[in-house]
Amino acid sequence: MAKVILNIGGMSCSACSAGLEKYLKKQLGIKNVTVNLVLAQAMIEYEESISVAKISDYIKEAGFKNLGVYDSRQMTEERQKNDGQFIFAAILAGLTLYISMAHMIYLPIIPFLNMHMYPLRYAITLGILSIAFIIYGFDILKSGYQNFVHRTPNMDTLVSIGVGASFTYSIFSTIMISNRQLSYVNHLYFESIVMVIFFIKLGRLIDLKSKEKTKEAIKELVQITPNYALLKTGKGEKKVTLDTIKKGDILIAKPGMKVAVDGIVVKGNGHFDESFITGEAIPVKKEVTCQVVAGSINYDCYIEYKAERIGKESTISEIVRLVVEATNTKAPISGIADKVCNYFVPFIIVSAILTLGGYLLLGYELERALNSFVSVLVIACPCALGLATPLAIVVSEGLCAKNGILVKSSEVLENAHKIDTVVFDKTGTLTYGNLKISQVYNYSQYSDSQLLAIVTSIEKKCSHPISKAFLQYAVENDLSFQEVKNFQNMAGIGLRGVIAQKDIYIGSDKLFTTLNLKNTKKKDESQLLEQGNSIVYVIENQQIIGLIGVSDVVRDSAREVVQLLQKKHKKVLMLTGDNEKVAQKISSNIGIEKVIANVMPKEKTEVVRRLMQDGGKVMMIGDGINDAPSLAMADIGVSISSGTDIATSSADVILMTNNLVRIVDLITISTKTITNIKQNLFWAFFYNICMIPIAIGLFHPFHFMMNPMVASCAMTISSIMVMINTLRLRKIQLEKRN
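Given the sequence above, the corresponding structure tokens read:
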């Protein structure tokens, strides 16, 4: 199974995106499709038996255009070309209006185009101008026709029918004028064709500009890496482009320079600005063995770093991919607009036909009937309805990304505000996970260094935060590692390995139950627990040979985030595999009332499942390593990321920062986003409910009428109002940082 994200040309409303999505899903070999109206992209999963070229053919058959595979660095030549065409079209539209309406507003009339003196010349001139606009808007008309043929009518279908009817009748009137039926000069609709297409193109241009603003966070990420790097060679420094860098190359970053690729510091130490992925302005200290991220700024040091992740493997590329894929998913609430559009467009076509027939049956002139027919088609274009949800989602996705919150699907943004229970893992989440060995009880004949060398040799094979404490100790004290055989990770209990033919177990007091042993060191254990230590027992050949205390530091933002969540009336729990005393000590410091301790990974998942079965909407926050099952089980799983390993996380949300307050920000953004979407949907529906009766002519007795030009202008204004309301999301006030 393969996946590709394609840029799509020709989409203008939710009926367009829904129609393309529906058509592609019918095709053999295509397994799943999500079309994003705002980004003008289609994310397609397909069998490798078909090619992207074949998919392009399907897209063309549906009335749209494949503009190529998504490339975060693609140029804007096509957009600049469109801008130039629009400026020329605006000049022609102004000329058309002047020729057709100058006499109505007492402006000087162009003598040789006087409609009363030279009616045929007047009609032909307007006809030529309208043909120019038909060519300019041919993509609209073609899309409308093809979608009508495929029985997926959209906004373009409405416009195509209206423009086609107006042009046909105007050509008929021009023929009648040529046959000296001069009264038909008052029955020309060429200027309506011009202005309808012009306003639709104007609306799409404004739409495009607004969509570009919603993608600023993605653009900023794309542009964050430098164009060049300093490569260390045998002859000194060499300036090279990024595409020439290979894994393992040693690169140099001097004060003020940006890091070129993800890598590991091999020489030097200093501070780096990583705010572009974490949202935190405080510089981060880096030293030998620390990871540096492409795009981070070197504040104050000379460092050398080894290139590790290049190009698409880099953290920046991964973040961009996640953000783009997230915006290409659909929030459930968007289904409202999609379902409405599936029925709305056919309903409008039928309504317009009934309006035309009704006026003719009532004895009105064809001009009046045609005017109302075209007005109904144009005014009902569901542009605003189609933008209501996806535009808000993209703006919010960008806001999240800018603040170090990577959301993997738009469904998360819809559901985050519904969360009523927040469950925290302890180690690595509420605490930094930077554990230190605080005390060692040695019951063996080994020296302390020998005992810790044995423990470290086994811990080296594990990635748990406690293992990192032992590895750090080994580096600082120059301990030598020993060969370990038959290594076994006993989830939630500890580790096992054979060293020098001796069976070694390392872990919590649960080892005694597993090994059916008696714990004779309870007193020493109690002392460590009173001091807030996590405990690590060392058992060799069924004998206790060591008890080690490991301590951790609570995150600075832990207490603040708990208080903010409680103010929002969220239940806050702590789950930990650590013992009850340590868990209670930490929870009392940060204000969490309910603690569930001594739980293994499987048991954490069961706790989350029970909370959900009791009707709770659960958010689980963990370090993304041992908590993967419970993160996957929860309604929303949030992983605390190191900032460099985000691709393999099983969570729905990845925090690229140590500040847990971002969790509250996520809930705030979700709340504001859903409110904004509901406002957009209300105004979009309200607009159509109000305008369609006016276009039909129900208010004619009150001398309140509408023509196609006014209808197209009103349609554009409705879309602009939705865009303005949505862009207010960029001004959301997030929690202040300490």
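DSSP finds 26 helices and 26 strands in the chain. Try to locate this feature in the token string yourself.
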